[in-house]
Design goal:
The chain is mainly α. It has one domain. 83% of the residues lie in helices and 0% in strands. It is built from eleven helices and no strands. The longest helix is centred in the middle third of the chain and has 35 residues.
Amino acid sequence: MPPLHALAIFAAGIAAGAINTLVGSGTLITFPILLAFGYAPVTANVSNTVGLVPGSVAGAIGYRRELEGQRARALRFAVASTAGGIVGAVLLLSLPASAFKDIVPAFIVIALVLIVLQPRIGRALESRRSREKHEAGPLGMLAVFGTGIYGGYFGAAQGIMLLAILGLSLPTETLQRVNALKVVLAGLVNLVAGIIFVFSAHIAWLPALLIAIGSIIGGAAGARWGRRLPPSALRAVIVIVGITAIVRLV
């Protein structure tokens, strides 16, 4: 691998780790980079999934204060996320590679729409949070399971989806505590999918390692300093990268 390619993948891993901790959509940074350097879409996806797992761990550690008192809730949601992640990973490996190439552009479009609408989603969650006081029910668990399937199959903007679902399901919680729970659940989906991919898919290990190291740095930084970044600038970068990925796939 050329040194410049390695540096770019490492830098993308840092950015993705930070973005995943803050919002969720870091795959829209790393996945297009791997495509641009000639990796096949499915190989890029599974390598990216494996590489981002350590970043989720770093982000969860950074949010440990916000996770206090959420153990029972996290365990309930973890069952749904883990089951969904397994289903999504199996679907990725079972369906032909051509299906992935056809489906993923639509997923990226959905992800970009969610990212653009994220401020409105946030305001809606705050409004609902001030009016309602209840815990997540079966519908919320089912939605988390569906998000796990999506995350196991591809994963871009899985965090945005989880933020919306968890925010609606847990209206009495602050957005920061909801975000901390999101980091854990998205990380679990990546973990179970990554384990399946290690044994059943072709992984480009050097890019995965570079992303892993970068995502640890980015995940820790995202939890500590990332809230200071201008949200509009971050969304603009993600949208540009996402459109690039769509063009590359199509």
